[in-house]
UniProtKB/TrEMBL annotation:
Source species of the chain: Pedobacter ureilyticus
InterPro entries: RlaP (IPR018775)
PANTHER family: NUCLEOTIDYLTRANSFERASE
Protein name (database record): DNA polymerase beta superfamily protein
């Protein structure tokens, strides 16, 4: 599949007159808890020639393609990515940490990741993750039953929020480091559920153990209250502008 994805990315480059700077796997495969029926969530960052940006008109800053049973692929222009980084958006933070990379220009990921460290705002990240967890919590039926996919849409975002609150750094993308925040006995329980997910369809219904459910509810409240106490922050745009101009000049053809 990786070969097919790389070929597809090459075709996208040629058809859209872009240079793909970085391409990775997002979603459950990138988070390291896929199911057998998980699709491939391919995400990429691209740049266009200089003249594209020299216009009085607003231009499209993303590329999307029809989703099929296996492949979900889209990309964002570097300008859009940098705008989101200024807002401390979690998506670029996660893409750059993906353990599955389909292609990258030399040095790009490391340079952008270093820049991201200066635009981390814990409150924004915590609230984003809690929003995802809250939406998944609302899918619980009969008090303790939930699709196994949705359970991880609670656990990973909740642990990410906890990481941001406690460590005051960008949360890891993969589930492994996040599990270290949990009590040992719950870590083992979740690892067993990850193994179950690896052999089950994403729609498989699982009962949430009461100890895990109690932990989820407690941590949700702690993170919610903790986010409220964090001070407001704002970020300068100059470093992002410099990165933007340097990127365009480097790859302008």
């Amino acid at each position: 599949m990786k070969t097919s994805i790389i070929k597809k990315l090459e075709e996208i480059e040629q058809a859209n007159d872009i240079k793909i700077l970085f391409a990775c796997e997002s979603g459950s495969r990138g988070w390291e808890f896929p199911s057998p029926d998980s699709d491939y969530d391919v995400r990429f960052i691209y740049v266009k020639p200089l003249n594209f940006y020299l216009s009085v008109l607003d231009k499209d800053d993303q590329l999307g393609f029809p989703i099929n049973d296996e492949l979900d692929i889209y990309g964002w222009d570097i300008k859009k990515v940098l705008k989101l980084i200024r807002k401390s958006n979690t998506t670029p933070f996660e893409w750059l940490q993906s353990p599955i990379i389909y292609g990258e220009q030399v040095g790009f990921k490391d340079e952008l990741w270093k820049l991201c460290q200066h635009y981390f705002y814990a409150k924004t990240n915590i609230n984003h993750y809690l929003g995802i967890a809250k939406g998944a919590l609302e899918t619980i039926i009969n008090d303790d039953e939930i699709k196994i996919k949705k359970l991880f849409y609670i656990l990973r975002p909740l642990l990410s929020a906890k990481w941001c609150l406690e460590r005051k750094t960008i949360a890891p993308m993969t589930i492994g480091p996040l599990l270290t925040l949990m009590p040992k006995e719950l870590q083992e329980d979740v690892k067993k559920i990850i193994h179950l997910k690896s052999t089950s369809e994403e729609s498989y219904i699982i009962k949430i153990d009461q100890s895990l459910k109690k932990y989820i509810n407690e941590q949700f409240e702690i993170c919610s209250n903790g986010a409220k106490e964090l001070p407001k922050e704002s970020f300068d745009v100059e470093a992002l502008d410099v990165f933007f101009r340097n990127t365009i000049n480097r790859y302008d053809n």
